[in-house]
Design brief:
heterodimer; A: MetI-like fold; 10 helices; B: mainly alpha; MetI-like fold; two-stranded antiparallel ribbon; 16 helices; 2 strands; 66% helix; 1% strand
């Protein structure tokens, strides 16, 4: 009896905290939220409540997440295909690959930022600049490209795990039937297995996007800027970001009470983005599982 | 069986399959790459080649022709290629710049014993020292001003404090909720509580940091009445909130995958649902629960934004949970913008990053081993 009460209480505490967070964000942010807020460009003084707006931040976040997807999906899906279809389960290499994936998943997000700075910006960027012979650093500085690549490395485990899960749930009978009818292994993978796994792959992509949209630490030194005069137009531009803007508004505001509404409104926009992506992925995944259970 | 026995592919397909294998294996390379490029910037510090002492022996520029080439190269801290590229004029100019730098050091500092000290030496990274202006020896991280102090101990202790609070907060709550949702709650309750708690996973850590900073810190301070509004305790609670969805999801998954037969058998033998859950299901799900806790530990240790916003960011050593504190992750995030690229401070921050990477790597490895051993014992094969 006591056990049920205690654990029920634990659940209640968590739900209450979640509720408190959502209520404070909604109640604080909805008054300041408007169409103008999300569709205009703010002045340089972010703390001026009248002219506050977040369009460049939305654009920046969306762009970096899209570019990240271009890099992470092929890489992640191919790795998952290898692990699921080709790798020898007993081989030490397979164990090392899985260990590497789970290690990458455990690396702190700020260390990814350092990696992005040390590898992409300083090594690759400066190296490419030296090779192409331009005088001023073009690629050797923080930019949209490097931030997206850093995020791609960070969310790789998410895509791999989700894809592998969906590949594994395809009944082996399907593959065997295809081989029995004379297809090669690659044909089976390309024409039978992957199309079947597409919804699961999509889930993985949505989860990765949801995760990356909210991350601030990895982009701090690899591309996010306090203020850019224009919307990012090229891969080498820096960009403003929703999460980073939330951080700036929360910690550098000269008058916290006055700027609280725009802070909460920005949080609202960010939460809307990440929560709807997360919820979408979860719904997709549960529908998939239900379909498979019915089909099996 | 036939799927794994191996096959001979046509030439075109063989190339594609080799490429697939290459991509698969490159994840190992990716992890090595992360270690290499984070550690690369910190390597000079680890190898003892960084000397941040303010007052360093100066070689007079008029003696440029009598100094051996190798000594001059290491004095000017150039690589062999850079050194060979430069002509005498450039080298002379560099030496004169050094002399001028020495003359620029304010008189007050030249006599200061601290100015002679290489603050990046390992001794000063981990051992206490009585710096000028302090009454007793202490562990000081203060990379501002003329003499930078780089002791790592306050930062490591800060990280450990917030992680401890985070785990103490998150583990009981998440495990309790997981146990409730998985074993004890009515099905209808389970259907909306589980997604609701997992919704917490979709909340970015920046948002949780804002919540801690603006809402929780004030509430907790009026509740418990301590001095500093932002401290390790508040940051720890915030960290716990970021870890809760992770621990909850994995623990709940492993609790649910315990065969229902166990529960039904124990109920048939007269146990109450609570007894079945606590004494049968939880021990059976132990590998997953331990894995969840370790992942939560890794998450708390590596989290940046929450600690940056809610811990107060005072980089002094203190064991009290209610003092303003600074973690390793927040230090990197806050100070990288001011660190001169390639300088001592810059390398120190990368050293912190390497330390974080190594800790997470070791935790992961140990965790894997522990979980594997628990699983083997569970299946009766230990």
């Amino acid at each position: 009896m006591l056990g049920i009460v205690l654990t029920g209480l634990a659940t209640l505490v968590l739900l209450t905290l979640l509720g408190a967070l959502l209520t404070s964000v909604l109640s604080g942010g909805i008054p300041a939220f408007s169409w103008r807020f999300v569709s205009t460009i703010p002045r340089k003084d972010f703390f001026d409540v009248e002219s506050a707006a977040i369009l460049p931040m939305i654009v920046g976040t969306t762009l970096r997440v899209l570019i990240m997807t271009v890099f992470v999906m092929p890489f992640g899906v191919v790795t998952a295909v290898y692990l699921s279809e080709y790798a020898d389960p007993a081989s030490p290499f397979t164990r090392w690959i899985r260990s590497a994936i789970s290690n990458i998943a455990g690396v702190p997000s700020i260390v990814f930022g350092l990696f992005g700075l040390g590898f992409f910006v300083n090594f690759l960027g400066r190296g490419l600049d030296a090779v192409s012979g331009v005088g001023t650093p073009e690629l050797g500085r923080p930019s949209l490209l490097w931030a997206s690549l850093t995020l791609a490395v960070m969310t790789l485990p998410v895509v791999i795990v989700a894809t592998e899960e969906s590949l594994r749930s395809i009944p082996p009978g399907l593959r065997e039937a295809s081989l029995a009818l004379g297809s090669t292994k690659l044909q089976t993978v390309w024409r039978i297995v992957l199309p079947q796994a597409l919804p699961g792959i999509l889930t993985g992509g949505i989860l990765a996007v949801g995760r990356a949209a909210g991350e601030v630490a990895p982009i701090l030194f690899t591309g996010a800027a306090y203020y850019t005069a224009e919307l990012p137009g090229r891969l080498t531009d820096q960009f403003m970001d929703l999460g980073y803007h939330v951080y700036v508004l929360a910690t550098q505001s000269p008058n916290v009470d006055q700027t609280a509404p725009i802070l909460y409104a920005t949080v609202l926009a960010l939460l809307f983005l990440t929560l709807s992506l997360n919820a979408g992925a979860i719904l997709l995944r549960s529908r998939l599982r239900r379909n498979q259970r019915d089909a099996a | 069986m036939g799927l794994r026995r191996g096959h001979r592919a046509r030439p075109g397909e063989w190339i594609v399959e080799k490429l697939i294998q290459g991509v698969g294996l490159s994840t190992i390379g990716l992890m090595v790459l992360i270690l290499v490029f984070v550690g690369r910037e910190a390597l000079p510090v680890l190898l003892g080649r960084v000397n941040t002492a303010l007052v360093q022996p100066i070689l007079p520029s008029k003696d440029i022709d009598s100094i051996p080439r190798d000594a001059l190269r290491s004095y000017l801290e150039l690589s062999t290629t850079q050194f060979d590229d430069m002509d005498r004029e450039t080298l002379l100019a560099l030496m004169e710049a050094r002399e001028e730098g020495f003359r620029d050091i304010p008189e007050a500092f030249r006599a200061d014993p601290d100015a002679q000290v290489n603050t990046a030496h390992w001794r000063h990274l981990v051992l206490p020292r009585r710096w000028t202006g302090y009454t007793q020896p202490g562990f000081v991280w203060q990379p501002v001003g003329t003499i930078h102090k780089y002791n790592l101990v306050p930062l490591v202790v800060g990280s450990l404090k917030v992680t401890l609070v985070g785990l103490l907060f998150a583990v009981p709550l998440s495990l309790g909720a997981a146990l409730y949702v998985s074993q004890l709650a009515p099905v209808r309750v389970r259907e909306w509580v589980k997604p609701a708690i997992e919704l917490l996973a979709g909340i970015p850590s920046v948002v949780l940091g804002v919540f801690c900073l603006l809402v929780l810190s004030g509430a907790l301070q009026s509740l418990l009445g301590y001095q500093f509004r932002l401290n390790a305790f508040v940051a720890g609670i915030g960290l716990g909130l970021t870890a809760v969805p992770l621990i909850f999801t994995i623990a709940e998954d492993s609790l649910t995958s315990v065969p229902r037969g166990y529960v039904q058998a124990s109920l048939a033998l007269g146990a109450s649902p609570w007894q079945a859950a606590w004494q049968i299901v939880l021990p059976a799900a132990l590998p997953g629960v331990v894995a969840a806790t370790l992942l939560g530990f890794g998450r708390c240790l590596g989290e940046t934004m929450v600690v940056l916003m809610a811990s107060g960011n005072a980089s002094t050593l203190s064991w009290s949970l209610f003092d303003s504190t600074r973690s390793m992750t927040a230090t990197i995030a806050a100070e990288m913008a001011e660190a001169v690229s390639g300088g001592g401070h810059y390398r120190m921050l990368f050293l912190l990053g390497t330390l974080l990477f190594v800790i997470s790597f070791v935790t992961n490895l140990l965790g894997d081993r522990i979980v594997r051993r628990l699983r083997r014992r569970l299946e009766g094969r230990a």
